[in-house]
Amino acid sequence: MNILISVVICTHNRSQYLAKAIQSLLNQQFPLENYEIIIIDNCSTDQTKEVVEQLAGKNLRYIYEPTLGLSYARNTGWKNAQGKYVAYLDDDAIACPLWLSTILEVFETVQPQPGCVGGKAEPIWEAPRPNWLSDELVTGLTVIDWSPTPQVLPDLSRQWLVGANIAFPKAVLEKLGGFIDGLDRSGKHLLSGGDVFLEKQIAQAGYSCYYHPQMAVSHHIQQSRLDKKWFIRRYFWQGVSDAVVQLIEESPSRSKRLFLAILRTINLLLVPSQITSFLYNSDDKNQFTERCFTLIKLGHIAGLLGLAHKPS
């Protein structure tokens, strides 16, 4: 077998979705002998292993990762990959039939070769989309559609690739050390941003991050996430995640963290509309969006004051 692409699915107690994700990979318009599927079982207690065993084939492998946390599972995946390229698909996502072909086309034809490539992630709504859910907040559900044409992403703070649908040359992952351990989801903790942080490292190393809309996946949006309380937690923890990234990049002293938190608090108080949006529960999508963006700032402050810890 000439393995060109290793596809990694990291999973934690999502056996009800996992079979559909794997089947979408088995249905690729791509030679079976040129790719492998690696399932990283991250401390699941459901029927995950049985689901994999039912679909077992020559190009499907199962690995149990005992340390809970998405970044640990992702790193276990690429370190065990045999392919030249490593692609990540979420356990509740479905890859389009040309997914692997598009990944290979980009890495083999775009010059200079990108450091990562990703594509469109479309929602599979498991309940009606709420009226208060704006397009700006939908990206928090791992839904993106940046452009109908392939392109290099020039500003990762405005447009980024999602970990549910992303691929790298394995050599780039080896060079940069992969994902930062501890900087991402772990059980019920909603830390996030490990994928975007790696994308920024890739850009700093001189590579491009490339978007191709034909590298498309569909992504289940569970009913439990279409709730204001989930979004409030999600965006507060986005702020905490931003604080973790700041600790990684700057390693500020305890006094500097306090100073930065005070400065951010003052800046927040100087914009009354942000405080108003936080205090009032409104179904207006613009007001709820501003409330969530205010929660990012509050989460960042809370992170600087002690809720965030630099990964060891």
TrEMBL record:
- Answer whether the UniProt record assigns the keyword Transferase to this protein: yes
The UniProt record lists the Glycosyltransferase 2-like domain at 6-111
Q: Name one GO molecular function term.
A: transferase activity
List, alphabetically, the Gene3D superfamilies matched: Spore Coat Polysaccharide Biosynthesis Protein SpsA, Chain A
Q: Name one Pfam family in it.
A: Glycos_transf_2
Q: Which UniProt keywords apply?
A: Transferase
**Superkingdom to which the source organism belongs:** Bacteria
InterPro entries for the chain: Glyco_trans_2-like (IPR001173), Glycosyltransf_2 (IPR050834), Nucleotide-diphossugar_trans (IPR029044)
The protein's name in its UniProt record:
Glycosyl transferase family 2
Q: Which organism is it from?
A: Gloeothece citriformis (strain PCC 7424)
Provide the organism lineage as a comma list: Bacteria, Bacillati, Cyanobacteriota, Cyanophyceae, Oscillatoriophycideae
